[in-house]
Amino acid sequence: MKTALITGGAQGIGRAVAQRLRHDGWRVAIFDIDPEALEEMREADPAMLCMPVDMGVESQVQRGFDALRDWAGDAGLDLLVSNAGIADPVSGPIEDLSLADWRRWQDSHVTGAFLSVRGAVPLLRRSGGGIVLMASTRALQSEPQTEAYAAAKGALVAMTHALAVSLGPAIRVNCVLPGWIETGPWQKASARREAQHSDSDRDQHPVGRVGRPEDIAGTVAWLASDDAGFVTGQRFVVDGGMGVRMIYQD
Ligand code: NAD
């Protein structure tokens, strides 16, 4: 049985990835900062390892990997999905952005990816596994006042090709760039909300709808499979075509 670690796996996209991999027969471990969401996951599926970890804090990540090594045993790890991070892209006007807030975005996304990769590589080497980093289309295009998030996601795209070159042939490394993904139905029960989209929300996507966490989970499942065995160092935009739509303003 294959084993995966998903950071930020207790809600949203990470939760859908966890659910998809469980459905496909994987053992799944989750590191997440939200204890309530973790408890829900643990109750729903006691076979999962659900660890409270802030991915931006080195000591917590180390504690998480200690628990993971005990839990996984000799099986090691076949897949790391580094997905955790502050999902809100708006950091406000650049001249008002504090260094502490800038660092919050970088720590949760970039430092978290670094610490999770560093911890996972010895375990992945045993099984010849793979890594998927969760970037964003905001690594390539922007709304105003999203510099901290865009910089963090751009860093993940760059880390992907650097890691692929360093870690091959043993480990394949790719990143996914989701577009607009509606995570309301995938939050913990106390924060769950139904998706509500207008015609204009749907129409700006050439596929005719807003994305779902299951769309990203399917891409991750493919990247983790042998069908993607010749794929490394790549970035995959999964945005329903929103990013290729040309806009002429009136
Ligand atoms: P979400 O808020 O629904 O879920 C994120 C999960 O990560 C939560 O369970 C949260 O508790 C956890 N988390 C946050 N910071 C953490 C930390 N420091 N350490 C450990 N866990 C932490 O968010 P989401 O929309 O599912 O986003 C998941 C990833 O996908 C993020 O990296 C986000 O930037 C990226 N992404 C999301 C979208 C989108 O439209 N939803 C688009 C592009 C990229």
From TrEMBL:
Keyword Oxidoreductase part of the UniProt annotation: yes
GO molecular function terms listed in the Swiss-Prot or TrEMBL record: oxidoreductase activity
Region described as Disordered: 188-211
Record protein name field: SDR family oxidoreductase
Source organism of the structure: Paracoccus aestuarii
Which family does this protein fall into?
A: Belongs to the short-chain dehydrogenases/reductases (SDR) family.
Q: Which residues form a coiled coil?
A: none
| Superkingdom of source | Bacteria
